[in-house]
Amino acid sequence: MGLLDILLGRTKPVLPDLDQLFALPSAAVTLEAAAGFTPTGTGAVCFATVEGGAFEQTHREVQALLDADADRDGPPVELSQDEYGYSWLVSRRSPGRLSELVNDLHAVNSSMEVNGFGPQLLCSLAGFQGEGGRRLALVYLYKRGTFYPFAPLPGGGQRRDNALELQVKAALAGDLRMEQDLSRWFPVWGAPGQ
Fold this sequence. Notes:
The chain is of the alpha+beta class. The chain is built from 5 helices and 6 strands. The chain has a 6-stranded antiparallel beta sheet with strand order 2-3-1-4-5-6.
């Protein structure tokens, strides 16, 4: 960044740091101690779908790589689309195997990035659950290299538990690179993997 950039108020965009995902298992310990949330064993990577053979080939390779894992619990990796047309690659592990879920999420992101589809990556999330059916997702924003909590209120509808989200942000500040701009805490209503 040069002097002219500083004078004109231009900043360089934050580069994604996929290794930040590996901090999730230690953050999960803090999250359980601070707020009583434990991993669900489900996570997902969201990306904008691209038409074309190269993208389809990359998607098939990633899915085959993750499905080949002999230690996988439950159903194979699945692809779904949300109501906005974004694609979600969902991985499921037993709740006690968060490290392996993180490896899955990292592998998907890395494969997409290596094959030139990094600009299509939007976010990754890992699901957590608390008492009374409360849900929480820790969402990693690919283009920002930061995390934020998303906590829908129980009972359906599109309302968030903002107090819980701020509590989780404060609790995990030492474990994860948290997104400071609250306007970037996008709701991920109905996202697979929550």
